[in-house]
Structure formats: C-alpha cells, structure tokens
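Supplementary Methods, section 5.1.

A reviewer requested that the exact input to the structure prediction be made available. We therefore reproduce it here, unchanged from the version used in the analyses.
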Amino acid sequence: MKKSQRLVELQRYINTKKEFTAQEIANEFNISIRTVHRDMLELADLGVYYYTKKGCNGGYRLLSTKLLPPVNLTEKESLAVFFASHSLTYYTSLPFDIDLKSVMRKLYENLPEDSKKTVDKMKTILFFKNKKRDVKNDHLSKILDYCGTNNIFELQYNSISEVKKYKIVFICLYSENGFWYVPSLDLKENKIKHYRVDRILQIAETNQKYENIDKLVEKSFDFTNFENPIKLYVQLTKLGIRACKDNPYLNSNIKIDKNGESGFLTEIIDKKDIKFFGDFFIQLSKNAIVVEPLEMKSYIYEKALELKNIYENHK
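The structure derived from this sequence is encoded token-by-token as follows.
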C-alpha cells in the first residue's frame, strides 16, 4: 500500500476507533511501531487532533474536533457541495458552529482551475435567497443535540401574551422563511406543537425519559390530523388561483374551470386556524371569496369593518 493511501486509510481507522495503541495500528496496517509514530505526526500536521497517553496503558485518543479523510468527488459533485455551503450563508444562525468562509475556501482551493472559473461565474448568477431575520437563536445548537432523544425538558417560551412554561420532548428542527422551528411533543396536552426557536427563553433538563418516540417526526408534519375539522370552500379568480398555488397549505385541492380564468378551492382545515387562513384571504380581496365556513366569513367581515373605520376619514 502506498504511503498516501495508507494515511487516508489510517485516518478512517482512527476516526472509527477513537482510542487505540501504536501496536494496534501496526498490526492493522502491517507496519513497524516507528512507522506508526511517523504517520501519526504527519496526520497531526494535516490537522488530525489527538493526544497521547504514556505508560503501560498508553496510546492515542482522538479529540472531538477531527479532520475527515479526503473524499473523491466529481466536478459536478464538488460544485453542488460548494453552492450548498454557499446557500447556508443566507442564514443568520445555524445549529452547528462552523466557519462557512473556511469551508468554502477549502472546497474552492481544491478545485481544478477550470472548475474555479465555473464557480467564479456561477457566484455572479446563482443565488439562494433566504430572508435574514434579526433574531437571536441562542439555543439552536443545544436543541439539535436534544432532538431525536427521549429526554424530557422544561421550556420557557415567550408567547404573544405572556411567558409560558411547557414540559416537552424535542423531535426535530427545520427552517422556514428565515425562522427556525422545533416541533415538540407537549406532554400536558399530548399534542405536537411547532415552537419558534428565537422565542425560547430557557431550557431545563428534567432527568426524565419519554418512552414512546416512534414516528414522532412523521407526525410532526402531518397536517391532516385535526382536532376540529371544518370544510373550507373558496371561489377564486385567476389571481386567486395563483396566490393559493403559492401557499404551501392550500395548493393541493384547487380546481380550475375550463376557461382557466376562475376556479375554486376545497380543503379541510382545523377550526383553530380560521383566523390564520382568514388573514390570508383578506389580502386577496375580491380574488378569493370565502363561501364557507360561516365563521371565517364573519371574521373577514369584522376585519373589513375594522379597516373601514380606520381609513374612512382618509379619503
């Protein structure tokens, strides 16, 4: 085995083992103890961090910050990884502590010259826009570590009206429209809720476990299991159809007339979301006429009167 290949394989080996002796490496790669020490010094120069223990029980232990062995990528794969990393720069907060500029610099420097020219050109024409929110996500990294475990936490959450306390199990983490959300199981109500991470004030461990965490991730994004289902029927103009197609919660059950100029929307929603969807349809004015439910029509009517009273003296 060539030395360069052996160093790559050695890096993979110690990343897996974490703790090992020189004799174990010598046996694994059929090399001398002296060669092991030389190879370990070369890996240290490459950024593989470890420390040595002396004595009869001595050896090496890999530190938590480790350097991964090289990965052979095609040019297209390298470009995809580069711009995937580039897209993360549009976030003000990430759930892991990394220097994105350093990551992209390493990727860029290892590209061949013609690929660098491709990247330079694409950086001027390809963008991944994401609205940057001026909010703090102090607990983002910790929450990522907590997700997927069965640990129970106490949460202080800054809701619209007051600071509330919850006993929850973190499920997963996602980003939408510039905000980070953490779907969690509220143990008091036995219901999955989506908490905005920047509104979380405090997280406390309870040393308690929740036994059944199976399929919680799938349930977190199941928006069809309603407590109080109610039918939504809306008449749409061409502009209304377009707006509803752009709404991820309303784009699956739109029917368009043969002329293509109008249509209607039928959907089952939760009764608690009447105001949420009502506010959306208010923006569309005559392009979306709610036929049912009656509660949403009444809500839109009251909001329209409120707006009329505000602006009637500004004609």
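The radius of gyration is 28 Å. These observations are discussed further in the main text.
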